[in-house]
Amino acid sequence: xxxTLREFPQDIQLYLMESFGFPVTIEKxxxxxxxxxxxxxxxxxxxxxxxxxxxxxxxxxxxxxTKYLQDFESHIPSLLFSHKEExxxxxxxxxxxxxxxxxRWFADKEVLQVLFKFHTRxxxxxxxxxxxxxxxxxxxMNHRVLExxxxxxxxxxxxxxxxxxxxxxxxxxxxxxxxxxTNPTNWGxxxxxxxxxxxxxxxxxxxxxxxxxxxxxGLGSDDGNLESLIASRYMSMWSELSYELPFTEEKLIKDIxxxxxxxxxxxxxxxxxxxxxEALSNILDKLITRLMKRP
Length: 295
Known about the structure:
The protein is an alpha+beta fold and 295 residues long. The protein folds into 2 domains: 3-94, Phosphorylase Kinase, domain 1 (2-Layer Sandwich), CATH 3.30.200; 102-292, Alpha-Beta Complex (Aminoglycoside 3'-phosphotransferase, Chain: A, domain 2). The chain contains 10 helices and 9 strands. It has a 5-stranded antiparallel beta sheet, sandwiched between helices. Strands 6-9 form a two-stranded antiparallel ribbon. A hairpin with a 5-residue loop joins strand 7 (187-189) and strand 8. The radius of gyration is 20 Å and the shape is globular. The termini are far apart.
């Protein structure tokens, strides 16, 4: 038996062998997380994803949250099997081998429609989880990022960084459920064309601006046109409902910009040690440029 497969729990092995037979290939998928792991197993007629996690958030999303999202299930990978051990949690889910095309990474109408549907279906509702991921902008995040900047730059942007943190407080009010990680690489397309979002370990509550902002690669657009387009398309979907609009388009544009900066600060504060020097320098240079514009 394949050594990697043999390292899976027995219940996982039995499900895979009884359902699909012996895997043709087993591929470990890369990511920044050090705990757990993710593998793509290819069988003769199908491939599946096997995810192992020490923190149970994504396991619980599939087990506890999806039951409230029946009319949204087509946009979530199908859960095929789950397994819980004393420490680790495991899920086997549908594999979406077709990545989201790069020419659709910018304000894609179908992506925004999926997020709009998810947000409105969960508007004002609590997550049925005891300890979900909770987005926040803490002082220590700023201090960690400032330590990464050159001394001659640090003093120039420190005040603006803390000002933006204060202005971003509305982002973290529990308005609706969020994916929390809508970056373009977390989307796929089924053979029937359905757009699907995966990686649900950061499922949380907050402002829709967080999900909208993270769909943008990098730090968003230099001229703000992308942020404006996202807000305009998202707000037009609200106009089709009888609900009162929850915010103005101008407010949403501002919040998308703030949410993008927050997401970069959080990412750097928590993951900078995992980045190659060139990648880290590139992100810091873009962050400095954005902060120096006094957004």
